[in-house]
Amino acid sequence: MSTLKDPGLASLGHDKMNWVRRKMPVLNALRDRYVKEQPFKGQRIAISLHLEAKTAVLAELLHIGGASVSITSSNPLSTQDDVAAALATTGVEVHAFRGANDEEFDQFHQHVLDIEPTLLIDDGGELTERLHSSRKDLARNVLGGAEETTTGVTRLRALAGEHRLLYPMIAVNDADMKHLFDNQYGTGQSTWDGIMRTTNLLIAGTTVVVAGYGWCGRGVADRARGLGARVIVTEVNPVRANEALMDGHQVMTMDQAAPYGDFFVTVTGNRDVIRPEHFVKMKDGAVLANAGHFDVEVDVKGLRAMATEVIPGRNENVEGFVLPTKQTLWLLAQGRLVNLAAGDGHPVEIMDLTFGLQALSLEYLLNHPLEPGVYPVDPAVDRWVAEIRLKALGIEIDTLTPDQEQYMASW
Amino acid sequence: MSTLKDPGLASLGHDKMNWVRRKMPVLNALRDRYVKEQPFKGQRIAISLHLEAKTAVLAELLHIGGASVSITSSNPLSTQDDVAAALATTGVEVHAFRGANDEEFDQFHQHVLDIEPTLLIDDGGELTERLHSSRKDLARNVLGGAEETTTGVTRLRALAGEHRLLYPMIAVNDADMKHLFDNQYGTGQSTWDGIMRTTNLLIAGTTVVVAGYGWCGRGVADRARGLGARVIVTEVNPVRANEALMDGHQVMTMDQAAPYGDFFVTVTGNRDVIRPEHFVKMKDGAVLANAGHFDVEVDVKGLRAMATEVIPGRNENVEGFVLPTKQTLWLLAQGRLVNLAAGDGHPVEIMDLTFGLQALSLEYLLNHPLEPGVYPVDPAVDRWVAEIRLKALGIEIDTLTPDQEQYMASW
Amino acid sequence: MSTLKDPGLASLGHDKMNWVRRKMPVLNALRDRYVKEQPFKGQRIAISLHLEAKTAVLAELLHIGGASVSITSSNPLSTQDDVAAALATTGVEVHAFRGANDEEFDQFHQHVLDIEPTLLIDDGGELTERLHSSRKDLARNVLGGAEETTTGVTRLRALAGEHRLLYPMIAVNDADMKHLFDNQYGTGQSTWDGIMRTTNLLIAGTTVVVAGYGWCGRGVADRARGLGARVIVTEVNPVRANEALMDGHQVMTMDQAAPYGDFFVTVTGNRDVIRPEHFVKMKDGAVLANAGHFDVEVDVKGLRAMATEVIPGRNENVEGFVLPTKQTLWLLAQGRLVNLAAGDGHPVEIMDLTFGLQALSLEYLLNHPLEPGVYPVDPAVDRWVAEIRLKALGIEIDTLTPDQEQYMASW
Amino acid sequence: MSTLKDPGLASLGHDKMNWVRRKMPVLNALRDRYVKEQPFKGQRIAISLHLEAKTAVLAELLHIGGASVSITSSNPLSTQDDVAAALATTGVEVHAFRGANDEEFDQFHQHVLDIEPTLLIDDGGELTERLHSSRKDLARNVLGGAEETTTGVTRLRALAGEHRLLYPMIAVNDADMKHLFDNQYGTGQSTWDGIMRTTNLLIAGTTVVVAGYGWCGRGVADRARGLGARVIVTEVNPVRANEALMDGHQVMTMDQAAPYGDFFVTVTGNRDVIRPEHFVKMKDGAVLANAGHFDVEVDVKGLRAMATEVIPGRNENVEGFVLPTKQTLWLLAQGRLVNLAAGDGHPVEIMDLTFGLQALSLEYLLNHPLEPGVYPVDPAVDRWVAEIRLKALGIEIDTLTPDQEQYMASW
């Protein structure tokens, strides 16, 4: 029933799933409860997320909780075929393989929607887009869903703003236990993991230019410094520029920074942040990487157009562009998310938090019927995830004494 | 007309004012405009703030902008008499001296209100309290005011919640350019400046226990690490506890942390955060300091009550308490704000941002008549302060291209 | 003439060599000179080093400088077959393939010695050992050589101490531009690169136990902190223990540290640093990695013996050992150097420094005939490498004025 | 018998001595033994050191150990008169007051030598200079001494080089437990303590130029970064320049750095490191401080000569120099050691290490009669101090197992 590259890869996939399962205390705590309570009994859940081991454990968890689950990948390059094969053996329906073309990619999503979902987990709005166009008939079954990314949430808000959103969606991305951790510490580590393994270059003593000082940018900048680099931040927001400065980084325009960078990392959420006018000012050998959602932050088209020659790098994730001005710039992972396309994505423990919020948000929708609209994660859910993580780590924190509670309330 | 300790100290006070004026680009930019525009012409401004050089420059600025200004100190111990004397020579009315008793402290505030203010700058609600009780008749003149502290804002919100607030107040504390900088970087530096100059003790290699991981707590913890300490954070909020952990600190309860700390710094906004049950578990020689608003975070009364002996420290800002359990604990600045009571408060450049927000918020009130209530700082004001600071530092940032603006709006 | 796995892999190997060549300014500066001067004309150079792209560029350089060069790998697992194939096309003789057995490994070294070397580059003493036993007849041709590692230098000193060393050897390992950089920044980065890519685990918020606080240990500890971990150091030297403490780390015995560590990294140069008595005290899920020279720092045999079960990890570089005490410990890369066995070794720019010292030390031997013995690198060579690197980075430094020179000499 | 400013200040001085005594575990451990063993019985010890509380505790200790002790200050500005008065009540002879003129300063040293010393503790060679000129007759009594500073050691080596040194001197400065700690962590913290308390300026977000990257320079640079600054290092040594770079700092010439610095700190041991040609390129408001031994690192004479006006700063430790190029530069503490002249010198715990080495080195001289010459501290002494400090902190470290000892010796 599943669509897979090779069911024979399941054994490798199980190894990967076993590995991550051991480092996901939040999902494990939920599993213990779901086995007994079966909260999703009778529900049909459609999922579109990057399909690798951590995601597989989430899908399996919802199935264990009583749901019928059908899943595909939100990006044709992020599917790990061995994991997909392993997941398919657990009772979850899987439609995905790495390197699907556009038509196959769409077809997978259609198959997943064939389950006639009552609940959704979406990444960038792939499922919701189809439920509001070609599969509109299915929307009436949907009790609600949860969205993973900033991009998806922004899209949902636009839809809701035009009163066209057909069911309630919870903005998991905006929860404290998501963006403070996933965006900051997750992106920070996985970006540099990806860059180091791809290039074998030294970070200490180099100059790293980070475009954007939101939560992701802070994480990338902080880890760059932790690896011994000097950091230059570019921003369009003057408050954030001041923060970057106070954190000990230099702040300048991309135009000014271009000649100094050994590494450039874009994390802005915008397009064409590094453009031909900047490329020509860069040092020979500068490395360009993107850790923002889409592959438009570095103007790859512009770079390709102006290059007099394209030369191979150390491996398939590095490409050299020789400019008319003679220097060679090295683009990583074709300007796509360097941590996913040239690495393994966020660390396991980070996704445990994010996926805990996902599962609990679906449960919340079952227990709290909502009008169509975009909703924040219930603060109690955020807090519960935070508490479970502390507990798993054996960490205790203080509680307010009655006197202290009264003092705080007495103003 | 002013009430001063000694007008003869003015010369020293002018030296201090000259010094800080050179490092306040935001106030300087305002001065250039105020000289010409006289925005406060005809206004009468009452101020209650810690009266030292930075505050004096703010008061002078408003006077230069056309206002009649009368000022006192929001804390009887934070007045610097030389600065008060200098300020009184500039045309500002001053009522303050260091070490005023309770009656004098109240009388100073009454004198300041005698100006029949149209605008207020308040710290902790000292002026507003009186304008809502003994001086209620004067409230009708008040166009509005601005409040400096978290504590004051919380009080104002309570008053407004009971529909008793008689004029609009702007919560300067909540502006980005205030709490992100003043609370974090200001408190972080000045707390350790105060501790080091008071104790001459080594920070590197010690264990610092920071109670509270809000913006102030982060600043204190980050600087402690920057000075070579290992940091333990205590919290009551599990999300913040997770953040502290991810930032590389240890997290535990105060009860668990008590035996490890060489220095304890409280920044919670709550009371009795360190109590007798903790004192008895501490190491001989542990140092206790508070950097939160009030002197109740360390239970000083409890400490004093249980001590078998009180011994002198290195200077008047260190006191040793010998416990029945034999160890001696050293309390700094009697548990008051260690950065103000045993130091010079926040660095100049930080107060430039905060006071820029103050002046602009008063201007805003003149141009935008508001109903009674508590209002956020206008985002344009926040942004303007951020921009002026960057400009003063010679820092340029990027601006969105039309294509980028469209891209950001296109979801 | 070369012994290779597959000459057809040369193209991939050339890509790798091209990549690293661009980031090796010291070797590039030497190449420019060697092409003209041919300093090694008539020399025959035997090399035993980890055979990957950076090493290949060194071998090629010496060949370009006029020498006949024959090379093998100092470790049967560190050969990259594509690089070996590429190097063989440049005129260098290569005898190596990945996964050679003990007999093949020895045979490769014998082949390399068949060149009847006049100069040597050795790693751990593999060539020198054979030149002092089975190939003693060839030693009389040897003008001298250079040794790469601490281990090799220690062995050479023992040999020289017994007056048995037959030619002069230069201790490249001990040069400032080697151990300060290779050992500290090289090991620091490559160890964490290896651990992150192998495990996909989060470093931030974890506790890392670093055994040993020499130059390597400092690097590993500093980068761990830079990635957000709390660090515990174990040492046998009380001075170093004090340094670790002052650097903000905790210091304790391995016995005390065992229950706290999420990651353990050994960098001591000693054996059995982590033993069964420690294993049983560790947390379930703890990760064990070694970044010291040999695979004896973690007592792998002891671990294997006590395990009730061995389970697969996420990939072939992670193995799980289930203990009678129920917890599972994860061993990376079988306890071998995690940065080489599960990564790409040191960053390119680091090896540029080390290999620059190697080439220049061989040149030095040609120009300065020496008695048998162990010699430090000429300080002028150290300084020259430092200067070339600064120049390549476009960095200028100050020079003493005549007055300053006189002042420094005047005591 | 003592020469004091005011014996009535003794009470304040005792408070200070009590304070530091509690944080000096090494000296306390020695005191316990000295009380019983009286190792210095019959000895006469002359001391010239900065005379403040930490030094007083050392002098008292030697007296407790059986010696007659006479002490003066090695710098006329570093005497604390209250401490001098307190010390004089303990049986130690004191000749010092703050602000002594040149003649008085010399006279104090002559008085101290009148004790006819058998042992010396010297700082910068003040006693030795006189014992080799006007008081040559007393040299024959001297069993030996210990020297505190790099400067003094260099002088002694020059004297010994000319075969003119008349007794053995131990170079305490060169011990691991001295320069790794005192120079690095001591200077690092106390320099910024001094700068912050003197200026009340913000460090975060500024650019700090550190001249010199020896142990002192590293400490100053590292703490600057820990306080949120960006650091530029200037050096004359290319190896150190590379180290500074790898540590994440920028490296350039003073000429290039001049326009960027908000703070300049000299720690080179040389003269005229910042000169008129640099002053004219600096930003308006730049702050100049010295943390090297002598007040010649900043060319204060040159600065004074070129200034068109000298203006008062915030207090007596800040002086403004208006240049013909219009900017004002602020010089701290007249270019003298900013941590001593505008602060309290090194933290207590640091001096405990240094003074422990001093006392033990004198003991060593008693038990190991030596020829005239300059000697390193006995490694066993270094190790003992390291161990005592760990023990005082309750820290245990590992010891080698017999197998490990054998393994280390087996090459």
TrEMBL record, chains A, B, C, D:
It comes from the Bacteria. Residues 183-345 form the S-adenosyl-L-homocysteine hydrolase NAD binding domain. GO terms for molecular function: adenosylhomocysteinase activity. CDD domains: SAHH (cd00401). GO terms for cellular component: cytosol. Pathway: Amino-acid biosynthesis; L-homocysteine biosynthesis; L-homocysteine from S-adenosyl-L-homocysteine: step 1/1. Binds 1 NAD(+) per subunit. It catalyses: S-adenosyl-L-homocysteine + H2O = L-homocysteine + adenosine. It holds the Pfam family AdoHcyase. Keywords: Hydrolase, NAD, One-carbon metabolism. Its EC number is 3.13.2.1. Its cofactor is NAD(+). One of its GO terms (biological process) is one-carbon metabolic process. NAD(+) binds at residues 149-151, 214-219, 235, 291-293, 339, 346. Belongs to the adenosylhomocysteinase family. PANTHER family: ADENOSYLHOMOCYSTEINASE. This is Adenosylhomocysteinase. It comes from Sulfobacillus thermosulfidooxidans.
